[in-house]
Amino acid sequence: MLEALGLSTAESQVYRTLVGSGRCPVDRLEQGTGLAGAQLDQAVAALAAKGLVALTDDLPAQLIPAPPDIAGETLLLARMDELQSAKGFLKQLTKEYREAHRPAALEEIAEIVPAEVLSQRCEQVQLSARREVLRFDAPPFLLIDESNAAELEQLAAGVRFRTVYDRAAIEGYAAQLEIRRYMDAGEQARVLARLPVKLIIADRSTALLAVRTDDGRAPGAVVQIHQGPLLDALVALFELVWDTALPLEPSPGEVHRGELSGSDAHLLLLLLSGLTDDAIARLTGIGKRTVNRRVRALMHLAGASSRMQLGWQARERGWITAQDLDGLQPSGNG
To answer: What is the value of pTM for the model shown?
Structure first.
């Protein structure tokens, strides 16, 4: 047990013997401890240096043990000081280790994008794509300019863009016009009640990732993700969200849903997602009066006297599915 205080096994044996016997000639220790010669002399000298025993000038010399509660406490405090010093040294070594090894490993996976070059990096990542760009778009936005010129340039060059918009991103009049512009240029766009993060992925080889904020503050740290398991996970996340999200315009081969045509079913989903008639008109490229007329026709067909009743009847008649409803509901506070 005394080894914890820095005593060797031989030193502990000698001190325990002395504590039990009291004042004792050196030569008697050989019988009590089984130690002899140089091993015993070294143990006694070490105990004396630690203040645990005292040697008299008698012949033969006598050994007097120090009281354990006094000498032991002093030794314990000294040991604690040594351990604290060792702890501080370990912290310094840990810091040196991380500085020497960890940054290089992290740079292979991700890097923090400085705020001063964030807008430029967003543009560069999109322009680097040769096949496809995948995006989660939610406010506040990463680009300084209201218009994403890089997307329009890439769409004209034949690069495919698939974007899932957070519902909050398409509520403003200007945003709706801008999204309509991208869709007219070839963007495939969908909407989800709430996106978990802000994301841009270029050719599945690099990505920009940011945590969204809801109080108008600028995005927090933006990280560029390089090829590896983390990027693969982000691509998988995008595909899962894409499958759940609601298309902002019907696909060419969209089929009827019960009594509804594909376009009417799509209009109904946009309406139930919480978009206003004005927003639906701008996003679909039809007039507001046409939207009103088609909604009234849907209400008449469902026998509903209000839009709330229309939503309930749509679920009962199979015009919308459980998967559609999942895409209309916020997924959390993230």
So the answer is: 0.57
